[in-house]
């Protein structure tokens, strides 16, 4: 648990608003990193000399502004924050002085120059006016054709008509959940899973049930048992570069998971946002069993996060319902972003960027292995993150707090938990968000020092 005692002397107005504003200021400054566990209501009230009700109102205000979240049994923790950019300029959103090893995104590559060239070409197009108009909810036909061509890299043989374009993978997941599940229904997933899914399930009133995993992800026998006892309608899984453990399913494991899903009539929601990263990987679940799998990927991790274009290939029998779910939550993708991605796919720029980000990730993973040698480190050759199991005697919250005190943000295991259960004694380190490799190296040195020198860690936080 983080030791957080805000100085309220410079804040006017009611105490609960002062606490909420101080919390927001510390989140923006990087003093409270994503995943940091907040003090309990009673503990913070005692430290500040206010009532528990005041802290409850303050936390409620912070939660309303999406600064913090929480669940019974897990406590209250800091969420990822969207920082507003200037109206008039384009600038880096990085908090000053903080080395970001907590956000799972690729390093910035050559895509900025490529975007500038592409926008100039689009500006000269005689049909640019069509990019300012409403377009089909599933995406413009030539954009969907291009997406289908991109998926051919992974083994798909589909036409554009089978594709739905979305505003990123999170939008795809929301549309699938709305179409396939109702309030109170059970959705299975890995015991540790993408935090965005946890928030989505909570928002839609879906019961999330974690399934045990191993070095290849979902364990078939555990998945089978969960299907038998839970009456789940669907399972969400990250079969390639699982977040946070980087576990990747073999071909056999994928077939075993599909067999279990077929036996119980469970739809698989396959999140393959990292699928373009590995140079070699088994085919997606949806290529093996297109009638059983709702496939989700995006341009975010391997091309450019800012495009915000997701690609779905749902089973034919669910395509209409999922399309309605997508339309209800986002109507359509911005045609301009779809046009940029389409031109990049057709020109080969998308393939070049996928290669660039894969090679950059490979370099960073090698460096991480070198700098963190001796620790229990789990990753893959072209993964964007590593999963570091801490030595006995150190708890994740303590390391997270010690790291941020030294100017580095990392992620504890709490946000990844799908329901209740023991927290793994591990942290996730993201390798791309730090920016230049030299800055990542600096951050990893700091993390190693924080772990190896427990005397520098405040054990009151453990």
TrEMBL record:
<dbReference type="Pfam" id="PF00392">
    <property type="entry name" value="GntR"/>
</dbReference>
<feature type="domain" description="HTH gntR-type">
    <location>
        <begin position="13"/>
        <end position="81"/>
    </location>
</feature>
<keyword id="KW-0238">DNA-binding</keyword>
<dbReference type="InterPro" id="IPR000524">
    <property type="entry name" value="Tscrpt_reg_HTH_GntR"/>
</dbReference>
<dbReference type="InterPro" id="IPR015421">
    <property type="entry name" value="PyrdxlP-dep_Trfase_major"/>
</dbReference>
<keyword id="KW-0804">Transcription</keyword>
<dbReference type="GO" id="GO:0003700">
    <property type="term" value="F:DNA-binding transcription factor activity"/>
</dbReference>
<dbReference type="InterPro" id="IPR051446">
    <property type="entry name" value="HTH_trans_reg/aminotransferase"/>
</dbReference>
<keyword id="KW-0663">Pyridoxal phosphate</keyword>
<comment type="similarity">
    <text>In the C-terminal section; belongs to the class-I pyridoxal-phosphate-dependent aminotransferase family.</text>
</comment>
<dbReference type="GO" id="GO:0030170">
    <property type="term" value="F:pyridoxal phosphate binding"/>
</dbReference>
<dbReference type="InterPro" id="IPR036388">
    <property type="entry name" value="WH-like_DNA-bd_sf"/>
</dbReference>
<dbReference type="InterPro" id="IPR004839">
    <property type="entry name" value="Aminotransferase_I/II_large"/>
</dbReference>
<dbReference type="InterPro" id="IPR015424">
    <property type="entry name" value="PyrdxlP-dep_Trfase"/>
</dbReference>
<keyword id="KW-0805">Transcription regulation</keyword>
<dbReference type="InterPro" id="IPR036390">
    <property type="entry name" value="WH_DNA-bd_sf"/>
</dbReference>
<protein>
    <submittedName>
        <fullName>DNA-binding transcriptional MocR family regulator</fullName>
    </submittedName>
</protein>
<dbReference type="InterPro" id="IPR015422">
    <property type="entry name" value="PyrdxlP-dep_Trfase_small"/>
</dbReference>
<dbReference type="Pfam" id="PF00155">
    <property type="entry name" value="Aminotran_1_2"/>
</dbReference>
<dbReference type="GO" id="GO:0003677">
    <property type="term" value="F:DNA binding"/>
</dbReference>
């Amino acid at each position: 648990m983080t030791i957080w005692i805000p100085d309220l002397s410079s804040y006017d107005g009611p105490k609960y608003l002062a606490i909420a504003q101080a919390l927001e200021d510390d989140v923006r400054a990087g003093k409270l990193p994503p995943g940091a566990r907040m003090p309990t209501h009673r503990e913070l009230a005692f430290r500040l000399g206010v009532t528990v009700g005041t802290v409850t109102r303050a936390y409620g205000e912070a939660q309303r502004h999406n600064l913090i979240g929480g669940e019974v049994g897990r406590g209250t923790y800091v969420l990822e924050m969207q920082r507003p950019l200037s109206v008039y300029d384009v600038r880096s959103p990085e908090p000053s002085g903080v080395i970001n090893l907590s956000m799972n995104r690729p390093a910035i590559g050559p895509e900025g120059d490529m975007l500038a060239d592409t926008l100039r070409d689009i500006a000269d197009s005689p049909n640019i006016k069509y990019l300012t108009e409403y377009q089909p909810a599933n995406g413009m036909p030539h954009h969907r054709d291009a997406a289908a061509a991109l998926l051919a890299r992974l083994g798909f043989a589909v036409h554009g008509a089978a594709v739905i374009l979305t505003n990123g993978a999170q939008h795809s997941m929301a549309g699938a959940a709305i179409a396939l599940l109702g309030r109170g229904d059970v959705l299975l997933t890995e015991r540790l899973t993408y935090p965005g899914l946890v928030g989505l399930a909570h928002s839609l009133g879906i019961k999330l049930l974690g399934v045990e995993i191993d070095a290849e992800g979902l364990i078939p026998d555990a998945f089978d048992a969960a299907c038998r006892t839970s009456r789940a309608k669907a399972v969400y899984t990250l079969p390639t570069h699982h977040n946070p453990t980087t576990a990747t399913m073999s071909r056999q494991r994928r077939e075993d998971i599909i067999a279990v899903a077929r036996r119980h009539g469970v739809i698989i929601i396959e999140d393959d946002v990292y699928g373009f990263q590995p140079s070699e990987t088994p085919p997606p679940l949806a290529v093996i069993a297109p009638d059983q799998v709702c496939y989700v990927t995006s341009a975010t991790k391997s091309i450019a996060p800012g495009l915000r274009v997701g690609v779905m290939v749902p089973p034919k029998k669910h395509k209409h319902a999922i399309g309605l779910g997508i339309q209800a939550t986002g109507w359509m993708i911005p045609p301009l972003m779809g046009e940029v991605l389409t031109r990049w796919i057709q020109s080969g720029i998308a393939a070049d960027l996928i290669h660039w980000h894969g090679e950059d990730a490979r370099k960073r993973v090698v460096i991480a292995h070198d700098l963190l040698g001796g620790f229990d480190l789990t990753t893959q050759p072209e993964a964007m993150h590593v999963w570091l199991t801490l030595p006995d005697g150190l708890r994740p919250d303590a390391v997270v707090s010690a790291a941020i005190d030294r100017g580095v943000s990392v992620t504890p295991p709490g946000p990844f938990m799908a329901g209740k259960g023991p927290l793994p004694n591990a942290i996730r380190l993201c390798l791309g968000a730090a920016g230049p490799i030299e800055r990542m190296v600096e951050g990893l040195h700091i993390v190693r020092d924080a772990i190896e020198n427990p005397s520098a860690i405040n054990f009151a936080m453990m």
